[in-house]
Specification:
This protein is an all-beta fold and 259 residues long. 0% of the residues lie in helices and 48% in strands. It has no helices and 23 strands.
Length: 259
């Protein structure tokens, strides 16, 4: 309920055996979605090898806090953007899609003001992977471009989309029906997949191929490990505080672990 809702950062070890969340830092009005951490090597401003968590503030500016520092966050940009992603020392921000849906950039080392890099296609969501920007346009088609190139449509407006993610040359689309779909990064049509065994509102894919989904109840966390060319992948479903169930049909060795 509202009395148990916090605008803070929590963390836990990314495995199935340690399921305890710990409070990390009060985030002072941040939105619940984070932009990930950034490894900064600017010794003058941030300290060599300093890690940062970036988030979007309620004033629609980017903020950051150093990992390991439980103190107050610091403002990193001016407003106004509605989604951010950090990529190669650059903060990418999505403008108001009701007006333009443009993408802008800002150096993590401070300024200059937001620089427009894309103004010929309105987007409502974007990601950056391997020097490519993938975007969902207002009509739910998916587009692709290099960091300094032009947009090219790769998937038509087949279904409503909330977000997209990329892993191993596939795009994973979270539909407005809260189900997952995938398609090659080279284009084609969305294919329905039963990755997580339940409806989700947000998908995160770790660098080592762990798929995490937040359930529509906002309390259940779905987990699946990606394994190349195998269908018998781990598929655990567990809650924020308690393991709920395990899908024997897709779990390796058909065994459910108890934690």
């Amino acid at each position: 309920n509202a009395s148990n809702t916090y605008n803070g950062i929590f963390r836990r070890i990314a495995d199935t055996e340690n399921r305890n969340w710990e409070w990390y830092s009060f985030s002072g009005g941040w939105f619940p979605s984070m932009a990930g951490w950034k490894d900064s090597s600017n010794t003058a401003e941030h300290g060599y090898g300093a890690h940062w968590i970036y988030g979007l503030g309620s004033n629609l500016a980017a903020y950051r806090i150093k990992i390991g520092d439980h103190g107050q966050n610091e403002r990193a940009t001016d407003g106004t953007v509605f989604k951010i992603q950090i990529y190669k020392d650059i903060i990418y921000g999505l403008g108001d899609n009701a007006n333009n849906g443009n993408i802008y950039t800002w150096s993590i080392y401070g300024g200059p003001p937001w620089k427009l890099i894309s103004n010929n296609k309105a987007m409502k969501y974007f990601i950056i992977k391997n020097d490519y920007i993938y975007g969902i346009s207002l009509d739910n088609s998916v587009w692709k471009r290099t960091l300094d190139g032009v947009w090219n449509q790769i998937i038509g407006p087949e279904r409503g989309l909330i977000s997209i993610s990329e892993y191993k040359n596939y795009l994973y689309g979270l539909g407005t029906d809260n189900l997952l779909y995938n398609c090659s990064i080279n284009g084609g049509s969305w294919k329905s997949i039963n990755m997580l065994g339940g409806k989700i509102t947000e998908l995160v894919i770790s660098d080592n191929g762990i798929f995490y989904g937040i359930g529509i109840d906002k309390q259940t966390l779905f987990y699946k490990e990606y394994i190349d060319d195998k269908e018998d992948c781990k598929n655990f479903i567990y809650g924020i505080d308690n393991i709920l169930t395990c899908d024997n049909n897709t779990n390796i060795n058909n065994e459910c672990k108890t934690f």
